[in-house]
């Protein structure tokens, strides 16, 4: 019995000794693995730090070679970052993108630039913000707000080698219109094919100053540049349009009415509220610029007989919006269309000085006429 007890005791001691040894081995393994993980994390962290730090520095501080590059109109920060990396101006597009977001930089300008690899990120950003163009344009074309295609044709003829007739032939060409519909499907839809529309692309050439850097760009290139900018501007509000269940065509049509009603001191948001209020109660918009567009001629004063002209653009005889824009609208009118003032006004008029006076009822409107127009 004693021998058996002694044997069992010895066996237990041996097992405990083995377990202690195994425990020490496990602890060593855990310690080693932990140290390895910490070392790897440390190495990755240090490497990442130096990698980011390096990417924030100029590609080559000693470089003097000038590198030309183009930032296309409508480019976002992702596109700009990729262009800079592809041209060797920055080391890493993603880090440049994060850097601009961290510094809350935006509003970069399109254009042709000449940069070097010695430029810092801040210098690059400043250049892109100011839109400094290092290559002078061959010519520019300025298209003001509130113009029709007929009026724009005169600007094209004056500033380019193309005639007004060639311009109007192009913008009314079925082939060109279909091409633009395919290129900008979210902007130019089948709504422009409505048989009541006088010019399919009326209102789709954005008012701005356009710079061209080649001697003789094609007429199609000139016109498409203007349509492309309209697309860039309108698509900024895509989510708002979806929320309002409004199409791009309806937006440009509504905005064109505001643009034509505008004077130097016009409150477009309040005029927009008048139009929306009228639409809500199925009241004709009765805006004189649509009458002038229907007549196809300019008049200093719209006569009562003009208000009765039978034309799909005449908002004195039709309900709702006209079939399409009556002019090109600027950003202020577009934003006023999307963000009208909340009012109960149904009438407005502009006095001789361009100040607007609004009324909730026709009687109040008549009082404004007697007060501000019959003086």
From TrEMBL:
Chemical reaction(s) catalysed: a peptidoglycan chain = a peptidoglycan chain with N-acetyl-1,6-anhydromuramyl-[peptide] at the reducing end + a peptidoglycan chain with N-acetylglucosamine at the non-reducing end
Listed GO MF terms: lytic endotransglycosylase activity
UniProt keyword Transmembrane helix present: yes
Compartments reported by the entry: Cell membrane
Site (Important for catalytic activity): 261
EC class of the enzyme, as a word: lyase
GO CC, one annotated term: plasma membrane
Keywords assigned: Cell membrane, Cell wall biogenesis/degradation, Lyase, Membrane, Transmembrane, Transmembrane helix
One record GO biological process: peptidoglycan biosynthetic process
EC number(s) recorded for this UniProt protein: 4.2.2.29
Taxonomy, superkingdom: Bacteria
Pfam families to which the protein is assigned, alphabetical: YceG
Transmembrane stretches, start-end: 29-52
Membrane topology (UniProt): Single-pass membrane protein
InterPro entries: MLTG-like (IPR003770)
Similarity comment: Belongs to the transglycosylase MltG family.
HAMAP family on file: MltG
Protein role: Functions as a peptidoglycan terminase that cleaves nascent peptidoglycan strands endolytically to terminate their elongation.
Protein name per UniProt: Endolytic murein transglycosylase
High-level lineage: Bacteria, Bacillati, Bacillota, Bacilli, Bacillales
């Amino acid at each position: 019995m004693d021998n058996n007890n002694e044997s069992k005791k010895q066996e237990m001691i041996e097992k405990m000794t083995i377990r202690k040894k195994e425990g020490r081995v496990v602890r060593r393994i855990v310690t080693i693995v932990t140290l390895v993980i910490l070392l790897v994390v440390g190495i990755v962290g240090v490497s990442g730090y130096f990698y980011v730090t390096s990417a924030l520095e100029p590609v080559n501080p000693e470089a003097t070679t000038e590198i030309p590059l183009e930032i296309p109109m409508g480019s976002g920060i992702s596109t700009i970052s990729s262009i800079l990396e592809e041209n060797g101006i920055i080391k890493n597009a993603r880090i440049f993108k994060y850097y601009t977001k961290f510094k809350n930089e935006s509003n970069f300008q399109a254009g042709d630039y000449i940069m070097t690899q010695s430029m810092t990120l801040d210098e690059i950003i400043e250049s892109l913000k100011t839109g400094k163009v290092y290559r002078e344009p061959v010519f520019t074309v300025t298209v003001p707000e509130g113009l029709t295609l007929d009026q724009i044709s005169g600007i094209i003829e004056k500033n380019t080698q193309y005639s007004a007739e060639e311009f109007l032939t192009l913008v009314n060409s079925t082939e060109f219109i279909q091409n633009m519909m395919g290129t900008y499907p979210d902007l130019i839809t089948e709504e422009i094919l409505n048989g009541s529309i006088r010019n399919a692309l009326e209102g789709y050439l954005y008012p701005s100053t356009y710079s061209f850097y080649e001697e003789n760009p094609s007429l199609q290139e000139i016109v498409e540049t203007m349509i492309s900018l309209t697309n860039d501007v309108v698509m900024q509000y895509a989510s708002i349009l979806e929320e309002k269940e409004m199409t791009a065509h309806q937006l440009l049509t509504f905005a064109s009415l505001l643009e034509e009603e505008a004077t130097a001191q016009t409150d477009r948001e309040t005029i927009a509220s008048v139009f929306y209020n009228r639409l809500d109660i199925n009241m004709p918009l009765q805006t004189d610029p649509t009458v002038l567009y229907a007549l196809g001629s300019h008049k200093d004063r719209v006569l009562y007989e003009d208000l009765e002209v039978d034309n799909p653009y005449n908002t004195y005889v039709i309900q709702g919006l006209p079939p399409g824009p009556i002019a090109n609208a600027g950003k202020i009118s577009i934003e006023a269309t999307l963000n009208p003032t909340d009012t109960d006004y149904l009438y407005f008029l502009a006095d001789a000085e361009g100040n607007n006076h609004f009324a909730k009822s026709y009687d109040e409107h008549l009082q404004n006429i007697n007060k501000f127009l019959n003086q």
